[in-house]
Amino acid sequence: MAGASLGARLYRQIKRHPGLIPMIGFICLGMGSAGLYLLRLALKSPDVCWDRKNNPEPWNRLSPNDQYKVPLDGSRVLP
């Protein structure tokens, strides 16, 4: 058992305790959703600038019709 890989140990535990299957499924679903959300934030958010050389001020590319948040007094943020 000391030399068994992680996949083999997980398979044995699932065979012994089938109630783990929904828990593992929900954990994988949550981790996948969190990863996709972080990827969306990194690629679509105007707050993130990946290319400083060619686009040093990305906020200047936003048109007046784009929706972005503007903090008014530091405590309240309007959409």
TrEMBL record:
Coiled-coil blocks: none
Keyword Membrane found: yes
Superkingdom: Eukaryota
Pfam families the UniProt entry points to: B12D
InterPro entries found in the cross-reference section: B12D
Region (Disordered): 54-79
Transmembrane segments: 20-43
Keywords on record: Membrane, Transmembrane, Transmembrane helix
Record's protein name: NDUFA4 mitochondrial complex associated like 2
Organism whose genome encodes this protein: Aotus nancymaae (Ma's night monkey)
Chain's gene name: NDUFA4L2
